[in-house]
Amino acid sequence: MRSLRAALASLPDVDWVYTPDPDAAALALTVSRVRVLFDIHEEYHKGHLAQSVPRPTRPASERAVRTTLALIAKKCDLVTSVNQAILDAYGVTDDHGLVTFNSPPPWFARSSPKPTGNSNALTFFHGKALAGNGTSVVLDAVAEVRSRGVDARVVMFPSNGNVDGPPYDAEFAARSREPDLQDSLDLLSGRPHRAMPEVLSNVDVGLIAYNRVLGVGSLPNRFFEYLALGIPVIVPEYSPLMSEIVAREGLGLTVDFEDPASVANGMQQMAADLPELTAMGRRAKESFDRTYSWAPAFHRLRDRMIS
What we know:
alpha/beta; Rossmann fold; globular
Protein backbone atom coordinates (compact mmCIF):
# COMPACT_ATOMS: atom_id res chain seq x y z
CA MET A 1 0.00 0.00 0.00
CA ARG A 2 2.83 2.41 0.83
CA SER A 3 4.50 1.83 -2.53
CA LEU A 4 1.24 2.44 -4.37
CA ARG A 5 0.67 5.66 -2.46
CA ALA A 6 4.19 6.84 -3.25
CA ALA A 7 3.79 5.99 -6.94
CA LEU A 8 0.51 7.87 -7.10
CA ALA A 9 1.95 10.91 -5.32
CA SER A 10 4.91 11.03 -7.73
CA LEU A 11 2.85 11.13 -10.93
CA PRO A 12 3.58 14.40 -12.74
CA ASP A 13 0.91 16.81 -13.98
CA VAL A 14 -2.05 14.90 -12.55
CA ASP A 15 -5.08 16.88 -11.41
CA TRP A 16 -7.64 14.07 -11.06
CA VAL A 17 -7.43 10.40 -10.19
CA TYR A 18 -10.21 8.12 -11.46
CA THR A 19 -11.00 5.33 -9.00
CA PRO A 20 -13.43 2.53 -9.97
CA ASP A 21 -13.49 0.76 -6.59
CA PRO A 22 -13.51 1.69 -2.88
CA ASP A 23 -9.92 0.59 -2.17
CA ALA A 24 -8.57 2.79 -4.97
CA ALA A 25 -10.66 5.75 -3.82
CA ALA A 26 -9.46 5.42 -0.23
CA LEU A 27 -5.86 5.26 -1.43
CA ALA A 28 -6.21 8.26 -3.74
CA LEU A 29 -7.64 10.33 -0.91
CA THR A 30 -4.29 10.08 0.90
CA VAL A 31 -2.62 12.13 -1.88
CA SER A 32 -3.49 15.70 -1.04
CA ARG A 33 -2.51 17.33 -4.34
CA VAL A 34 -5.00 15.45 -6.55
CA ARG A 35 -8.76 15.51 -6.83
CA VAL A 36 -10.53 12.18 -6.62
CA LEU A 37 -13.33 10.89 -8.86
CA PHE A 38 -14.96 7.81 -7.33
CA ASP A 39 -17.07 5.76 -9.75
CA ILE A 40 -19.52 3.61 -7.79
CA HIS A 41 -20.72 1.20 -10.44
CA GLU A 42 -22.68 -1.21 -8.25
CA GLU A 43 -24.46 -1.56 -4.92
CA TYR A 44 -21.56 -3.01 -2.94
CA HIS A 45 -23.75 -3.68 0.10
CA LYS A 46 -26.08 -5.83 -2.03
CA GLY A 47 -25.53 -8.11 -5.03
CA HIS A 48 -22.38 -10.18 -4.65
CA LEU A 49 -22.23 -9.49 -0.90
CA ALA A 50 -25.66 -11.03 -0.45
CA GLN A 51 -24.53 -14.14 -2.31
CA SER A 52 -21.28 -14.60 -0.36
CA VAL A 53 -22.15 -13.67 3.24
CA PRO A 54 -24.14 -16.08 5.47
CA ARG A 55 -27.69 -14.90 5.99
CA PRO A 56 -27.42 -14.39 9.80
CA THR A 57 -24.55 -11.91 9.42
CA ARG A 58 -25.80 -10.27 6.23
CA PRO A 59 -27.61 -7.25 7.79
CA ALA A 60 -24.56 -6.27 9.84
CA SER A 61 -22.26 -6.73 6.84
CA GLU A 62 -24.52 -4.62 4.64
CA ARG A 63 -24.58 -1.80 7.20
CA ALA A 64 -20.80 -1.87 7.60
CA VAL A 65 -20.15 -1.76 3.85
CA ARG A 66 -22.74 0.95 3.27
CA THR A 67 -21.36 3.13 6.07
CA THR A 68 -17.75 2.70 4.90
CA LEU A 69 -18.56 3.62 1.30
CA ALA A 70 -20.60 6.63 2.40
CA LEU A 71 -17.59 7.92 4.36
CA ILE A 72 -15.24 7.42 1.40
CA ALA A 73 -17.69 9.02 -1.03
CA LYS A 74 -18.16 12.05 1.21
CA LYS A 75 -14.42 12.82 1.06
CA CYS A 76 -14.15 12.50 -2.73
CA ASP A 77 -14.40 15.53 -4.98
CA LEU A 78 -16.83 13.93 -7.43
CA VAL A 79 -18.78 10.67 -7.28
CA THR A 80 -20.32 9.12 -10.39
CA SER A 81 -22.67 6.18 -10.82
CA VAL A 82 -24.92 4.57 -13.38
CA ASN A 83 -28.06 5.65 -11.56
CA GLN A 84 -29.30 8.00 -8.86
CA ALA A 85 -30.42 5.17 -6.58
CA ILE A 86 -26.81 4.09 -5.98
CA LEU A 87 -25.73 7.66 -5.23
CA ASP A 88 -28.62 7.99 -2.79
CA ALA A 89 -27.69 4.71 -1.10
CA TYR A 90 -24.29 6.11 -0.15
CA GLY A 91 -25.47 9.58 0.78
CA VAL A 92 -23.99 11.33 -2.24
CA THR A 93 -25.52 14.79 -2.58
CA ASP A 94 -26.18 16.66 -5.81
CA ASP A 95 -23.23 19.00 -5.31
CA HIS A 96 -20.68 16.21 -5.74
CA GLY A 97 -22.61 13.42 -7.47
CA LEU A 98 -23.32 12.77 -11.16
CA VAL A 99 -25.17 10.02 -13.02
CA THR A 100 -23.10 8.75 -15.96
CA PHE A 101 -24.14 5.79 -18.09
CA ASN A 102 -21.62 3.05 -18.88
CA SER A 103 -21.37 4.11 -22.50
CA PRO A 104 -19.01 2.18 -24.79
CA PRO A 105 -16.41 4.31 -26.60
CA PRO A 106 -17.12 5.69 -30.08
CA TRP A 107 -15.06 3.01 -31.84
CA PHE A 108 -17.36 0.34 -30.41
CA ALA A 109 -20.55 1.50 -32.09
CA ARG A 110 -21.39 0.69 -35.69
CA SER A 111 -22.71 3.39 -37.99
CA SER A 112 -26.00 1.64 -38.60
CA PRO A 113 -28.20 -0.96 -36.87
CA LYS A 114 -27.58 -4.63 -37.59
CA PRO A 115 -30.19 -6.40 -39.76
CA THR A 116 -31.78 -9.13 -37.67
CA GLY A 117 -33.12 -12.58 -38.42
CA ASN A 118 -31.14 -13.04 -41.62
CA SER A 119 -29.84 -16.52 -40.81
CA ASN A 120 -31.84 -19.68 -40.34
CA ALA A 121 -31.48 -19.63 -36.55
CA LEU A 122 -32.23 -16.68 -34.29
CA THR A 123 -29.05 -16.06 -32.30
CA PHE A 124 -29.05 -14.84 -28.70
CA PHE A 125 -25.93 -13.58 -26.91
CA HIS A 126 -25.45 -14.51 -23.25
CA GLY A 127 -21.78 -13.80 -22.50
CA LYS A 128 -19.87 -15.61 -19.78
CA ALA A 129 -21.25 -18.90 -18.51
CA LEU A 130 -21.35 -17.99 -14.82
CA ALA A 131 -23.09 -19.79 -11.99
CA GLY A 132 -24.55 -16.49 -10.77
CA ASN A 133 -25.15 -14.98 -14.19
CA GLY A 134 -28.34 -16.79 -15.15
CA THR A 135 -26.56 -19.32 -17.36
CA SER A 136 -28.51 -22.35 -16.19
CA VAL A 137 -31.81 -20.57 -16.83
CA VAL A 138 -30.68 -19.51 -20.31
CA LEU A 139 -29.70 -23.08 -21.16
CA ASP A 140 -33.04 -24.43 -19.97
CA ALA A 141 -34.86 -21.68 -21.85
CA VAL A 142 -33.18 -22.33 -25.20
CA ALA A 143 -33.84 -26.06 -24.79
CA GLU A 144 -37.49 -25.26 -24.11
CA VAL A 145 -37.95 -22.86 -27.00
CA ARG A 146 -36.31 -25.33 -29.41
CA SER A 147 -38.74 -28.00 -28.22
CA ARG A 148 -41.49 -25.65 -29.42
CA GLY A 149 -40.03 -25.66 -32.92
CA VAL A 150 -38.12 -22.35 -32.75
CA ASP A 151 -34.66 -22.53 -34.34
CA ALA A 152 -32.67 -20.68 -31.69
CA ARG A 153 -29.00 -20.58 -30.72
CA VAL A 154 -27.09 -19.01 -27.82
CA VAL A 155 -23.58 -17.58 -28.02
CA MET A 156 -21.51 -17.69 -24.83
CA PHE A 157 -18.02 -17.92 -23.36
CA PRO A 158 -17.70 -21.14 -21.35
CA SER A 159 -14.26 -20.32 -19.85
CA ASN A 160 -11.77 -17.52 -19.34
CA GLY A 161 -9.43 -18.79 -22.06
CA ASN A 162 -9.81 -21.63 -24.53
CA VAL A 163 -13.24 -23.15 -25.01
CA ASP A 164 -12.08 -26.30 -23.25
CA GLY A 165 -10.26 -24.38 -20.51
CA PRO A 166 -11.25 -23.95 -16.85
CA PRO A 167 -15.00 -23.27 -16.75
CA TYR A 168 -16.65 -20.18 -15.32
CA ASP A 169 -19.49 -22.47 -14.24
CA ALA A 170 -18.47 -25.92 -13.01
CA GLU A 171 -21.82 -27.43 -14.02
CA PHE A 172 -21.83 -25.91 -17.49
CA ALA A 173 -19.82 -28.56 -19.35
CA ALA A 174 -22.09 -31.47 -18.38
CA ARG A 175 -25.31 -29.51 -18.98
CA SER A 176 -24.17 -28.19 -22.37
CA ARG A 177 -23.64 -31.75 -23.66
CA GLU A 178 -27.14 -32.96 -22.82
CA PRO A 179 -29.33 -34.01 -25.78
CA ASP A 180 -31.82 -31.14 -25.47
CA LEU A 181 -29.02 -28.61 -26.15
CA GLN A 182 -27.38 -30.30 -29.11
CA ASP A 183 -26.64 -27.83 -31.94
CA SER A 184 -28.00 -24.90 -29.93
CA LEU A 185 -24.79 -23.43 -28.44
CA ASP A 186 -21.99 -21.42 -30.06
CA LEU A 187 -19.09 -21.63 -27.58
CA LEU A 188 -16.33 -19.05 -27.98
CA SER A 189 -12.83 -18.76 -26.58
CA GLY A 190 -11.91 -15.65 -24.62
CA ARG A 191 -11.84 -12.34 -26.52
CA PRO A 192 -10.42 -8.89 -25.72
CA HIS A 193 -12.96 -6.11 -25.42
CA ARG A 194 -11.86 -4.60 -28.73
CA ALA A 195 -13.02 -7.77 -30.50
CA MET A 196 -16.54 -7.67 -29.08
CA PRO A 197 -18.19 -5.63 -31.87
CA GLU A 198 -17.12 -8.32 -34.32
CA VAL A 199 -18.43 -11.07 -32.02
CA LEU A 200 -21.75 -9.28 -31.62
CA SER A 201 -22.09 -8.64 -35.36
CA ASN A 202 -23.54 -12.14 -35.69
CA VAL A 203 -26.04 -11.73 -32.86
CA ASP A 204 -29.77 -11.06 -33.27
CA VAL A 205 -30.79 -10.49 -29.62
CA GLY A 206 -28.80 -9.58 -26.51
CA LEU A 207 -29.61 -11.11 -23.11
CA ILE A 208 -29.01 -9.68 -19.64
CA ALA A 209 -29.81 -12.77 -17.57
CA TYR A 210 -29.27 -11.54 -14.00
CA ASN A 211 -31.33 -13.01 -11.20
CA ARG A 212 -33.08 -10.81 -8.66
CA VAL A 213 -30.07 -10.49 -6.37
CA LEU A 214 -27.93 -8.97 -9.12
CA GLY A 215 -30.60 -7.59 -11.42
CA VAL A 216 -32.63 -5.24 -9.25
CA GLY A 217 -29.98 -2.52 -9.03
CA SER A 218 -27.96 -3.26 -12.18
CA LEU A 219 -27.42 -1.25 -15.34
CA PRO A 220 -24.45 -3.11 -16.87
CA ASN A 221 -22.01 -2.10 -19.58
CA ARG A 222 -23.19 -4.89 -21.86
CA PHE A 223 -26.71 -3.42 -21.97
CA PHE A 224 -25.38 -0.23 -23.57
CA GLU A 225 -23.07 -2.19 -25.86
CA TYR A 226 -26.15 -3.94 -27.28
CA LEU A 227 -27.82 -0.56 -27.84
CA ALA A 228 -24.70 0.88 -29.46
CA LEU A 229 -24.70 -1.92 -32.01
CA GLY A 230 -28.43 -1.80 -32.72
CA ILE A 231 -29.18 -5.13 -31.04
CA PRO A 232 -32.63 -5.68 -29.46
CA VAL A 233 -32.54 -6.92 -25.88
CA ILE A 234 -34.29 -9.18 -23.39
CA VAL A 235 -33.73 -7.96 -19.83
CA PRO A 236 -35.01 -8.81 -16.33
CA GLU A 237 -38.50 -7.51 -15.63
CA TYR A 238 -37.45 -6.85 -12.01
CA SER A 239 -34.68 -4.43 -13.04
CA PRO A 240 -36.35 -1.02 -12.84
CA LEU A 241 -33.37 0.65 -14.51
CA MET A 242 -33.18 -1.57 -17.60
CA SER A 243 -36.89 -2.29 -17.96
CA GLU A 244 -37.76 1.42 -17.85
CA ILE A 245 -35.41 2.15 -20.76
CA VAL A 246 -36.60 -0.88 -22.73
CA ALA A 247 -40.27 0.02 -22.29
CA ARG A 248 -39.83 3.74 -22.96
CA GLU A 249 -37.69 3.29 -26.07
CA GLY A 250 -39.35 0.14 -27.43
CA LEU A 251 -36.10 -1.73 -27.94
CA GLY A 252 -36.81 -5.17 -26.48
CA LEU A 253 -38.68 -7.34 -24.00
CA THR A 254 -38.66 -7.97 -20.26
CA VAL A 255 -38.92 -11.46 -18.75
CA ASP A 256 -38.29 -13.28 -15.48
CA PHE A 257 -34.74 -14.62 -15.71
CA GLU A 258 -35.36 -16.90 -12.76
CA ASP A 259 -38.00 -18.76 -14.81
CA PRO A 260 -36.83 -20.64 -17.95
CA ALA A 261 -40.38 -20.74 -19.35
CA SER A 262 -40.64 -16.94 -19.14
CA VAL A 263 -37.32 -16.56 -20.97
CA ALA A 264 -38.41 -19.10 -23.59
CA ASN A 265 -41.61 -17.12 -24.12
CA GLY A 266 -39.55 -14.00 -24.77
CA MET A 267 -37.31 -15.82 -27.22
CA GLN A 268 -40.33 -17.22 -29.04
CA GLN A 269 -41.95 -13.79 -29.23
CA MET A 270 -38.78 -12.35 -30.77
CA ALA A 271 -38.65 -15.15 -33.36
CA ALA A 272 -42.32 -14.76 -34.28
CA ASP A 273 -42.05 -11.17 -35.55
CA LEU A 274 -38.80 -10.51 -37.41
CA PRO A 275 -39.89 -7.12 -38.82
CA GLU A 276 -40.57 -5.90 -35.27
CA LEU A 277 -37.23 -7.37 -34.19
CA THR A 278 -35.51 -5.27 -36.84
CA ALA A 279 -37.47 -2.19 -35.71
CA MET A 280 -36.38 -2.80 -32.11
CA GLY A 281 -32.77 -2.88 -33.25
CA ARG A 282 -33.17 0.37 -35.13
CA ARG A 283 -34.76 2.04 -32.11
CA ALA A 284 -31.96 0.70 -29.88
CA LYS A 285 -29.33 2.37 -32.07
CA GLU A 286 -31.30 5.61 -32.30
CA SER A 287 -31.79 5.66 -28.54
CA PHE A 288 -28.09 5.12 -27.94
CA ASP A 289 -27.02 7.87 -30.33
CA ARG A 290 -29.54 10.30 -28.88
CA THR A 291 -29.20 9.68 -25.14
CA TYR A 292 -26.69 7.06 -24.02
CA SER A 293 -23.61 7.53 -26.21
CA TRP A 294 -20.26 8.64 -24.86
CA ALA A 295 -20.35 12.22 -26.19
CA PRO A 296 -23.19 13.65 -24.03
CA ALA A 297 -22.01 11.66 -21.01
CA PHE A 298 -18.45 12.94 -21.44
CA HIS A 299 -19.57 16.54 -21.82
CA ARG A 300 -21.56 16.39 -18.59
CA LEU A 301 -18.62 14.84 -16.78
CA ARG A 302 -16.09 17.29 -18.21
CA ASP A 303 -18.22 20.27 -17.23
CA ARG A 304 -18.39 19.06 -13.62
CA MET A 305 -14.66 18.33 -13.45
CA ILE A 306 -13.59 21.77 -14.68
CA SER A 307 -16.14 23.71 -12.62
